[in-house]
Predict the structure.
Amino acid sequence: MSELLHKNGLTQLAAGLRTKQFSSVELVRAYLQRIEASQSVLNAFISVTAEQALGAAAAADRDIAAGRGGALAGVPIAHKDLFCTAGVRTTCGSRMLANFVSPYDATVVAKLKSAGAITLGKLNMDEFAMGSSNETSYYGPVRNPWNIDFVPGGSSGGSAAAVAARLIPGATATDTGGSIRQPAALCGITGIKPTYGRVSRYGMVAFASSLDQGGVLATSAEDAALMLREMAGFDPNDSTSVDTPVPDYVASLDAPLAGVKIGLIKEFVDEGLDRENERRIREALAVLERAGASLREVSLPHLPSSVPVYYVVAPAECSSNLARYDGVRFGHRCQEPRDLQDLYRRSRGEGFGAEVKRRIMTGTYVLSAGYYDAYYLKAQRVRQLISADFKRAFGEVDVLVGPTSPTAAFRIGAKTADPITMYLNDIYTIGANLAGLPALSIPCGFVGGLPVGLQIVGAHFAEARILNVAHRYQLETDWHRKLPERFA
Ligand code: GLN
């Protein structure tokens, strides 16, 4: 039986554990086997913590037997390798942090632990979460389970590939400009980025602090709702964390769609979108209409400026955040520095990869005297206009929809030589980050044998609504149940 356990989603696994159909030790063993068998092919994990996981699973089994244990008691998960884990290294996909072991757990890690989840390891990612293909990782690219010559998307490529190949039923991830939704789309799974401030950033290695937000990758909206409910909530250790109660996202999943107003973002289907991809989106919208929702087109005129705005704001914030890696306090230190300048220069030069250096240089440039007003300030102004567009739109409709990514997955290496082409992958996802809105991606079909995603964006703190729309769609369709043949 344990060979088939991976066919279940997180919700079913949690229920199966509670009703003692199988034990957590059995479940963890089954997933560890899948991880081991696929690692040389997919490269989804940076660290696997088998021993700790089996110990925690035995403890979870005792808790369950005693009638204790949280909503995720005994359920295996894994973390993107930028969530700090006490005693287990956190590399952030970088050589800079290759030996970094955090003395404490990120709030997200602690919360999932106290809900009973078992961590099987740390997932591969683009270096410092900068990328859209998982090719910037110091630990090598991750491969897409649907076709291993293709990228899984990024920066949470390890999380997405692991969930898509059912190496794990759910994983944490982060989204600064699309890094949960874009890999979810390219790997055919469900991913949600909550409202900025909904999930604590404490212990989450910073890339661009005004945009970074932790979230979930899972195989369905139902599972994402369950995991998010356990992760979300106010944290006094994060000054941007918002002190409002977390609704029960699971309880509202089934609400009927009658009367729900859906707005298709006009700018997202006007140009640049692959035609087959567009067809899948329109078919998905027809499903939602049949389920009772009403559909109209909504224009957000400033949205096409998201990519240039983001690629000023995000590098600016990253140049500041990454200044802490100086070779002095923690992280990579060069051998035998001659003096302080040499220590800084060589430690950073050796520790960071090319994409991270490009961002730091861009960020330093746009923040420098004389250019600050022309670039950074201007970008912040346009960011406000984009937020205002969304605000206006949510006066008219309940949720906004569109594609998640302009194309399905592309070949490994196809875009690495041209950063601008790579940045354009984020064209549909960045807007939600700039405005701090919750957004998710669900699978809605295939183009050329590769999955594509439908994106659903909500108003601030409307996670329950977008999960509800996604769940109703998944009740009518079975795209989210499809598994790549090789990992079936
Ligand atoms: N692809 C975007 C970037 O490279 C977004 C990354 C992210 O969301 N972490 O910056």
In short: The mean pLDDT is 97.
